[in-house]
Design goal:
RibA-like_sf, 35% helix, binds guanosine-5'-triphosphate, 2 domains, metal-binding, alpha+beta, Rossmann fold, GTP_cyclohydro_II, binds zinc ion
Length: 417
Amino acid sequence: MTSTGPVSCTPTSETRRNTQPKARLPGQHDPEPGPLVPDAASLALRRVHRAASDLRRGTPVLLRCGRENPGSALLVAAAETVGARGLAELAALGAAPALLLLAPSRAAAVLHRPIPTATAAGTEEAPVALTLPPALLDPARLRSLADPVAEQLLPEAPELAAPPPLAFAALVLAKLGRLLPALVAVPVPEARVAEAAPLGIFTLPAADILAYPATAATTLTRVAEARVPLEDAPEARIVAFRAADGGIEHLAILVGDPEGLSAAGGAPLTRVHSECFTGDLLGSLRCDCGPQLRGAIARMAQDGAGVLLYLAQEGRGIGLVNKLRAYTLQDQGLDTLDANRALGYGADERGFLVAATMLRQLGIPRIRLLTNNPDKVAGLAACGIEVVGREPHRFAANGINDHYLETKATRFGHLLR
Ligand SMILES: Nc1nc2c(ncn2[C@@H]2O[C@H](COP(=O)(O)OP(=O)(O)OP(=O)(O)O)[C@@H](O)[C@H]2O)c(=O)[nH]1
Ligand SMILES: [Zn+2]
């Protein structure tokens, strides 16, 4: 069995050095309306959202260093979305030849050889930088370098270069934008940093990006709640949680009264379910998500109470578009783990802090977890949730998802019973 990496409370793309000021506590509301001075954590979230949106539109953004590396500035654009204008802006401000920043797994495929991996921010693989010859500074060719699905034979091969400071934060930003983790980058000399704003280029500290997942998780608040009788569980309620980043809401589906059970010292049946548009909504046969979702709710109804956290972490945190790309690679012979790696993503990009924060806010600190995934048990425990037991949650293979289920057992360490 190959390990998919150490389990931690927080997503893999998160720094262990949270340099951000303290966020509002979960459940704590905005102070009385007064002078419009948002707290520092909300401002940091806003900056990251703005930067990720710019990358998604093909606009470059400028990353600045904090105290460790004063003077460093890196202008980056997503290889997947950058157009001629973005490339011209990079050329206008950049001090050196443009680089392509990639995860080592994608760089190895581009260079047709293994890349020795170093680590950044504790346990993460450090990005690899390749020097881009002028012939490759072209939107279509950059897309082909970023995306194994769109790969073409290229006129000139890039060469390995030293990764610039801030390369790691840049790749994390691309992942937060659910883009392929591949960026065109140029270091910008301090004397030229002031030229970015008049071009409409947004600037943010790299520390904001690294702190983002934890800040977003700890600013979750309950925003709506309603009774929604379900086919398999007539006594059900949905509670919606929103983070200060304004991103997609996470949902808790409460069957019966798990809060009351917890208040009496019990440990309700709990399922931490990552959203799967294809499996949950369309009944895709590629995975086991649909049966797991419906099966968990039915089991909670039988048990009398339970809570299902429906988390906006599509595709194990890589997003729907990248999951579809991963499916194309799986049709070409890769398994679900290697397909993620080929795209430059980790095998599993999810963190457990969101789930733990929701459970705490619901007043459910002790649970019996419905899962086959030992990382979920360890991850929730690392976030302070007491997992008093694990209940297996397996469904028979359907003739199409057999290899997927087998990979989860052999390569992700999923338990068979
Ligand atoms: N990247 C990727 N994601 C997938 C694939 N198949 C399913 N998923 C996603 O995997 C997630 C489902 O995982 P879960 O059911 O939460 O959890 P698990 O890790 O399988 O563990 P269990 O609790 O045992 O089910 C959903 O977000 C799906 O969209 C795939 O081939 N590639
Ligand atoms: Zn699925």
